[in-house]
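EI: anyone free to look at a 132-residue chain?
SC: sure, send it
EI:
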Amino acid sequence: QKIKDPVFQLCDVIRETAFAAHKFHGPGHLEKIYENSLANRLRKQGLRVEQQVALNVYDEDGALLGDYFADLWVERQIILELKAVRAVLNEHTAQLLGYLRSSRCEHGLLLNFGAGRFYIRKFVLSEAMAAL
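SC: here you go
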């Protein structure tokens, strides 16, 4: 049996926890409610979760341009971009990929709590860039 990469194990925990939060709260809340719920539930599992944390944004040459605020940053490894919308759009995916690229973070999850069906998708920066 192949041993799973720790980042992917962490993604499994986040996915299961986020699904439980969506099942309990359902759609219809503001994004902040889902952010607080997910952060609370992940912290109760012993994970390091930072909310609205400023992550540096770098230019191609490494120059620091400023920062943006990630919804959640889990274990300083995975950026979580949360949405509470009826449907995930290409712009939401582009937003997360832009965050990953400019902050030089390799892993991100896009989650949508706003629809009747919970949505989560994992992005790996190096794989996404290779596909372009």
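EI: The chain has a mean pLDDT of 93.
SC: 👍
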